[in-house]
Write a structure and sequence with these properties.
This protein has 247 residues and is α+β, with helices and mostly antiparallel strands. The protein has two domains: 63 residues, Winged helix-like DNA-binding domain superfamily/Winged helix DNA-binding domain (Arc Repressor Mutant, subunit A); 146 residues, Chorismate lyase-like (Chorismate lyase), CATH 3.40.1410. The chain has six helices and ten strands; from the N terminus they run αααβββαββαβαββββ. It has a six-stranded antiparallel sheet. It has a two-stranded antiparallel sheet with strand order 1-2. Strands 9-10 form a two-stranded antiparallel sheet. A hairpin with a 5-residue loop joins strand 9 and strand 10. Helix 1 packs across helix 3 and helix 2 crosses helix 3. The radius of gyration is 22 Å and the shape is elongated.
Length: 247
């Protein structure tokens, strides 16, 4: 990282410094490499340490850096790719998928999900919890809501909850003929459960991807997946679909 003095610029100094640091991260540092300490960086760029900290905090928020007490500031790994507008469609749990089943239980879904599934008031559904990890870090958590009518054979399985039950629900979904799916994306804030799963503070920005899966002329399942907002960026393809790409 070469010596660069910041000249007078219209934007705040820390923002301009962030741009300079971003260029250096792209050209001079490898994933996992530890940056020089704050005193060295501040002297090299001719800025106050408070200005440097603001720039580093912004880069951490954007997912470019990891700052850990006792370790230092390291370059973050490449981001995970998540296709939202892809023409490829399959049920959750397809072979080679990056998600891991964390558990399952039977409970009444939120009102918005119940409306999409067209279940009766107070009707319980299968709720499969799944997580997605990249480079040892949690990047997404999902709740998959499946009514009993979509997977009637699961009722014969002994385990009422847990990972085995969740995998059984996913296996039964594969037996249905998938007719299509649609997705929506919105910016939100991490709830307490999401924050715990994603190793973030409550209220941290997240992207919520809601997917409806259609079979036999109805909504057969609904997925609500919460992604860390610092692990993805949105792009719009030629087909008009939306995709989340990382790295």
């Amino acid at each position: 990282m070469g010596t660069t003095q910041l000249e007078t610029v219209p934007e705040p100094k820390y923002w301009h410094l962030k741009t300079v640091l971003t260029e250096a991260l792209d050209s001079e540092f490898a994933v996992g490499e530890i940056l020089p300490n704050e005193r060295e960086l501040a002297a090299r760029f001719g800025v106050a340490r408070a200005t440097l900290r603001q720039a580093l905090e912004q880069l951490e928020l954007e997912g470019r850096l990891h700052r850990r007490r006792g370790v230092g500031t390291t370059v973050a790994p490449p981001r995970v790719g998540v296709a939202v507008g892809s023409d490829e469609q399959d049920w959750p749990g397809a072979l080679g998928e990056a998600w891991q089943t964390a558990g399952s239980e039977s409970d009444v879904p939120p009102a918005a999900v119940a409306r999409m599934l067209e279940t009766l008031d107070g009707e319980a559904v299968h709720i499969v919890r799944r997580t997605r990890v990249s480079n040892g870090l949690p990047v997404a958590a999902e709740l998959l809501y499946v009514p009993g009518s979509s997977v009637p054979d699961v009722s014969g399985i002994d385990n009422p909850s847990g990972t085995a039950r969740g995998r059984a629900v996913l296996r039964e979904l594969q037996r249905l003929g998938l007719e299509g799916q649609d997705r929506s994306v919105e910016l939100g804030s991490a709830r307490a459960d999401d924050a715990r799963e994603l190793d973030r503070l409550p209220g941290a920005p997240v992207l919520v991807v809601t997917t409806r899966f259609f079979a036999a002329g109805r909504t057969a399942a609904v997925s609500v997946a919460t992604y860390r907002a610092d692990t993805c960026r949105l792009t719009f393809g030629d087909s008009g679909g939306v995709e989340i790409h990382h790295g």
